[in-house]
Every structure is written in structure tokens, then in C-alpha cells.
């Protein structure tokens, strides 16, 4: 089983009726600013360096971001904030991520999410989370990273479920949980809600990525 096989399986998945309907409806109705574009409207596969020792784990595709472009954190404000930081940390070849053909390459990092289809209100149900988690679990098995940067409490919880950690350590920015060779790093999500209000600043994100880089060298 390879990353390529996993990607083929993910992009054709229709396991969650509510999310299949939502991702396709958003792709049909679009946002006015993107009216001339063809939305991806399908499950989003992980991407990056297959030899990555650092995985960035998000929540789910954004309706007009990854659900439009087909690549995580690509084409939205969260992505602008994240890729600027990944570029400063040396994980991304460019500080922006606009489309799947923009030439962006990751080095030492892989970006994925707990859930692969855009959910209404960015909120998957527990059933949808559980249906999708096996994909991230397989991805982590195949990549065997040293660090997983969990963007937000949902991703933190998802990673702990995948690893079977109980009781679950609390999420926080800078939280760490070590499980063998792998360390989970808690990081506030780079959503506009956090970045516009100063809950997550560029130096805060830089610090977590620096820590991930350190763990990758161990
Ligand atoms: O065809 P390829 O060079 O393996 O690239 C496929 C895909 O993965 C492309 O979007 C670049 C990305 N990628 C990357 O970001 N970092 C790597 O080290 C290798 C591939
Ligand atoms: Fe499949 Fe995951 Fe999308 Fe559900 S959220 S349909 S499990 S890819």
C-alpha cells in the first residue's frame, strides 16, 4: 500500500452522505469571486514530500479553499498565513499556495487533515470524523513522521484517537505529547478567527514549526 494508492482511494470516497452533498453543492453554487472556476468538489488528498518527517494536520477542507482548488490550505486566508510560515521555516518553496499547478513544493513536510470533505460550518459530526480517520491513520503509517503539528483541537483529538492515547492530554498552543518516536504538537489553527484577533501570531506559528524541525532531526 502506497501514498498513491491511498490518494486514489480518498478522492473517490463517498462514505458520508451529508458531506458528499455539501461538497458538491458548494462546488455547484460557488462564491461569486470564483464563479468562473471549476471547483474540485471532492475529497482532498494529502500532499507534499513523501519522505516528510513532519506532518501538518488540519481539520477539513475549506469550502472555497481546498474544496475549490483540490489542495489543502490552498486558495484561502488560512493557507496564506500557514504557507508564509512554512516558507520562513524552510518547509515550503514559496510563501503562497494558490492552485495545484503553482509549482509549490514542500520539503520535509506533508500537509493533510483529519477529514477530507468540506463540512458545513467547518464542523464534521463524530460519525463523519470516525468514517474519515482511517485515511489519516494510514497516511501516518506510510509516512512514519517524527512530528505531527495538530492545527486546532479537532486535529489534536483526531491524532490522539489514531494513536489510541487515553486519557487524552489537553490541547493547547505548544502542547506536546510523545508517543514512541512520534511527537504531537498542539498549535492554534491559522483560521482568520485566530489570526485576525491575534490569538495566533506569526511568531507563535514559527515557534511550533521550529520545534517540529528540531524533532525531525532527532
Ligand atoms: O510528481 P512529483 O514531483 O512527485 O510531485 C507530485 C506532487 O507532490 C507535486 O504537487 C509536488 C509535490 N511534492 C512536494 O511538494 N515535495 C516533494 O518532495 C515531492 C513532491
Ligand atoms: Fe469519505 Fe472522508 Fe469524505 Fe467521509 S469525509 S466521504 S470518509 S473522504
Report on this structure.
The protein is an alpha/beta fold. The chain has one domain: Uracil-DNA glycosylase-like domain (Uracil-DNA Glycosylase, subunit E). The chain is built from 8 helices and 6 strands, in the order H-H-E-E-H-H-E-H-E-H-E-E-H-H. The protein has helices spanning 3-11, 17-29, 66-69, 77-88, 126-143, 153-163, 192-195, 202-217; strands spanning 47-48, 54-58, 109-113, 147-151, 176-179, 182-187. A 6-stranded mixed sheet has the order 1-3-2-4-6-5, sandwiched between helices. Helix 4 (77-88) packs across helix 8 (202-217) and helix 5 (126-143) crosses helix 6 (153-163). It is globular and about 45 Å long. 2'-deoxyuridine-5'-monophosphate binds next to strand 1.
Which helices and strands appear, and what pairs or packs with what?
Elements: H1 3-11, H2 17-29, E1 47-48, E2 54-58, H3 66-69, H4 77-88, E3 109-113, H5 126-143, E4 147-151, H6 153-163, E5 176-179, E6 182-187, H7 192-195, H8 202-217
Parallel strand pairs: 2-3, 2-4, 4-6
Antiparallel strand pairs: 1-3, 5-6
Helix pairs in contact: 4-8, 5-6
2'-deoxyuridine-5'-monophosphate is lined by residues 47-49, 105-107.
